[in-house]
Amino acid sequence: MIEIYYVEDDVDISCAVKEFLGQQGYKVSVFSTVASAKEALASMCPTLVLVDWNMPDGSGKLLVQWIRLKWKELPVIFLTVRGDSCDIVSGFENGADDYIVKPFELEVLLSHIKALLRRTGDASRQYLSCGSLSIDLKKMSVYNGTEEIGLSPSEYQLLLYLLQNKGKTITRRKLLEEIWDSCGNYVNDNTLTVTMKRLREKLHQPVCLKTVRSVGYRMEEPE
Fold first, then answer.
1. DSSP states of 119-172 as a string?
2. Do 61 and 118 belong to one domain?
3. pLDDT by 10s per residue, the chain, length 223
4. The model's pTM
5. Which of 29, 41, 197, 198 is at 20 to 30 A from 153, Cα to Cα?
6. Are residues 110 and 79 located together in one domain of the fold?
7. Range of the domain at 104
């Protein structure tokens, strides 16, 4: 299902948009502040983001700049009143893909969403994340927040496998089999311990990477 994050503080507009797009088969999550949108984005990348230009706790333009630091190909549409048209050009320079002027017809919004997704595809599948950690699968790049982290091949594969199985406890034996034995490189149990220690150090001891004592490890969103 296509998941849309809608950053909008006008309850009437957001409810109308959510109901209409829901009827078209889209899942819409509404965020009334920039802060709440950032919190949600930090844990999951949606298919597309709708951003109101003016928010009570910050500018939509600044939110899009923040998004582009982590998800350069995530489709973004600005929703703005006509008086902000001069600023929209600046907004495009900072990463927005399209804009719609308020008030707008819901069918017009839908047509813009469909057109943009035809151009971009579902970019959300390109990203995996948990807490402040994220992987760009296309570029094989790893980030902690906006900081890019350099990992060895085995460290990258270890993090990737845990993120692909987020929420599940993966045994040490399973990790050894999947990451090393599958490549024909048999290693002992200590190799996993050393690799995990180095991975945690490089990622600045992330709270989302849990140790399940005497069993293995689990990626889990922080509370």
1. HH--GGGGEEEETTEEEETTTTEEEETTEEE---HHHHHHHHHHHHTTTSEEEH
2. yes
3. 899 999 999 999 999 999 999 999 999 999 999 999 998 887 778 999 999 988 999 888 899 988 888 788 899 999 987 655 555 555 555 578 898 988 899 999 999 999 999 998 887 788 888 888 989 898 899 998 878 999 999 999 999 999 999 999 999 999 998 888 765 566 678 889 999 999 999 999 999 999 999 999 999 988 7
4. 0.73
5. 41
6. yes
7. 3-126
